[in-house]
Design a protein that fits this description.
The complex is a heterodimer of chains A (242) and B (254). Chain A has a domain of 66 residues. Helix content of chain A is 39%, strand content 25%. Chain A is built from nine helices and ten strands. The radius of gyration of chain A is 18 Å and the shape is globular. Classes of the chains: A alpha/beta (242), B mainly alpha (254). The interface between A and B is medium-sized, with 25 and 18 residues. The complex binds adenosine-5'-triphosphate and magnesium ion. The site of magnesium ion has 4 residues of chain A, from helix 1.
């Protein structure tokens, strides 16, 4: 479903991705962890081409993402993304946030999109918030609307970049519950998170990144019981303590 | 010296005030006000459309669109509005003859609109660009990540927010345009100030007339600024407004 082969990327002089090799099959849930600045966000953002790459190859759902003639909008319709800062559109209500892309990028009618929005808001547990603007929602509610917005395009892959880092403890749970459910329904997911509980329960594999490289890629149980890499071990002991 | 003598010595002759009780004089001012408002509204409407295109041009990733847009905006902003107005007043007709035929005569009203709009569109372009740049990058990213194209993102996500933030700045610009319409009097458009001039050259009472004209400008602009404050309070979040100012300052510094 996703296949990185020796992917490199620079920001000016900074070598941010230093030869990423990673493959994900359908229905797999991979958690990416690693210290700040290790390139996690950059890596996940290359998958839907929010960041271009310098060399190597990246195939997503059969498309060679970084080739010139790829229809990037078509690719992105099949890859949902959820951001740390929600990025809801503040001038639109929750339902309108969800309806925008299905109407404009998939050509659904207003009525169909509205039905879809209501169904998804129910799925993420806030059916009563359809006509409320983001400013009047809590952080956890906003992030759930953002997840619903991404799901409205019926993506084959969902990318999450620290979806709960901006949230308080109670709200983290509401969001993780939605993500857990999504994982159990068989969605292919790449999730950057330091939520160990979520990683343990919902993921198949954990990828540990440091300084632009993947230095450990293990099944979840193995990773938490006996991580192979010293750096991963140190990082884990820090994260788990908190 | 009592106050009447003082006023007379300085040209304020109380004897001309009674003439302003005649409604005919006010019809005359009224025509001027109408012309001033009409030309302002048309100029701002034209400028808004042109300014939007220029702003998008300047933000384009394509060099052959961006560079000419920058050059155009910057050079027009460096010219006096009056120069542009006079230019269209003199050359406007021959400029359009290739399009509208050899007998075409550009009405002075439209020559004035063109001169004002040319300048104002360059200013509005910068205001619009600042508004667009003041939005968080995450807005564009979220829209593009959903598979919306660049034009769709602009149309449905960026512009609706940016334009809302810009309402106050646009209203301020409208006020400026209203005052600048006084310049189109020089090419023979009978706007408010020009009407005033016609009156005082007949009655030799420039001080009284100019006082009245000044008061009328003041009332129009005051009403507008009150209106824009209402809109502003109702809409743009404070934080976003500050950001617009920052972008403008950054631009000036650059
Ligand atoms: N647009 C950019 N321009 C320049 N440098 C960037 C840009 N985005 C990220 N970087 C740099 O690239 C490196 C990797 O950043 P990235 O955001 O991928 O790390 P991360 O692992 O997601 O970190 P965090 O846990 O803090 O989110 C960092 O040093 C960062 O400063
Ligand atoms: Mg990050």
């Amino acid at each position: 479903m996703i296949e990185f082969r020796d992917v490199h990327k620079h920001f000016g002089q900074l070598h941010v991705l230093r030869g990423i090799d990673l493959s994900l099959s359908e229905r797999e849930v991979v958690v990416v962890i690693g210290p700040s600045g290790s390139g996690k966000s950059t890596m996940i953002r290359t998958i839907n081409r929010l960041e271009p790459i310098d060399s190597g190859s990246l195939v997503v759902d059969g498309l060679r993402v970084h080739e010139k003639n790829v229809d990037v909008n078509r690719l992105r319709r099949d890859v949902g993304m959820v951001f740390q800062s929600f990025n809801l559109f503040p001038h639109l209500t929750a339902a309108e946030n969800i309806m925008l892309a299905p109407m404009r990028a998939r050509g659904l009618s207003r009525r169909e999109s509205r039905e879809r929005a209501e169904r998804l808001l129910a799925k993420v547990g806030i059916p009563e918030k359809a006509d409320v603007h983001p400013a009047r929602l809590s952080g956890g509610q906003q992030q759930r609307v953002a997840i619903a917005r991404a799901l409205a395009m019926e993506p084959k892959i969902m990318l999450f970049d620290e979806p709960t880092s901006a949230l308080d403890a109670e709200m983290i749970r509401e969001v993780l519950d939605v993500m857990r459910q999504l994982a159990s329904e068989g969605m292919t997911m790449v999730v950057i998170t330091h939520e160990v509980g979520f990683a343990r329960e919902a993921s198949n594999r954990v990828v540990f990144m440091d300084e632009g490289r993947i230095i450990e890629d293990s099944p979840t149980a193995t990773f938490f019981e006996r991580p192979r890499e010293e750096r991963a071990r140190q990082f884990l002991s820090k994260v788990i303590k908190h | 010296m009592d106050i009447t003598e003082f006023l007379q010595a300085h040209g304020l002759r109380p004897s001309t005030w009674p003439m302003f009780a005649d409604p005919a004089i006010w019809r005359f001012f009224g025509e001027g006000i109408r012309e001033t408002l009409l030309i302002s509204v048309v100029a701002v409407a034209v400028s808004f459309v042109a300014g939007l295109l220029l702003a998008l041009g300047r933000l384009s990733t394509r060099r052959w669109i961006r560079w000419p847009s920058i050059a155009w905006i910057e050079s027009i902003r460096a010219l006096p509005v009056l120069l542009l107005i006079v230019y269209f007043g003199i050359k406007g007709s021959s400029l359009f003859r290739p399009i509208f035929g050899p007998d075409f005569d550009l009405p002075r009203f439209w020559a004035g609109v063109l001169g004002l709009s040319m300048y104002t569109s360059a200013v509005l372009a910068e205001i619009i660009r600042a508004g667009i740049l003041s939005l968080p990058r995450g807005q564009t990213e979220a829209a593009r990540a959903l598979g919306l194209s660049h034009p769709q993102t602009l149309r449905h996500v960026i512009l609706p927010q940016a334009l809302r933030l810009m309402v106050p700045a646009m209203m301020a610009q409208l006020t400026t345009v209203i005052k600048d319409t006084s310049l189109v009097g020089t090419i023979g458009v009978f706007e408010l100030l020009r009407q005033g001039r016609t009156i005082y050259t007949q009655f030799f009472n420039p001080i009284e007339v100019l006082l009245i004209v000044a008061f009328i400008y003041f009332v129009i602009c005051f009403v507008l600024s009150q209106l824009s404050r209402r809109l502003e309070l109702g809409r743009a979040p404070r934080l976003a407004r500050i950001k617009i100012q920052e972008v403008q300052l950054r631009d000036q510094a650059a």
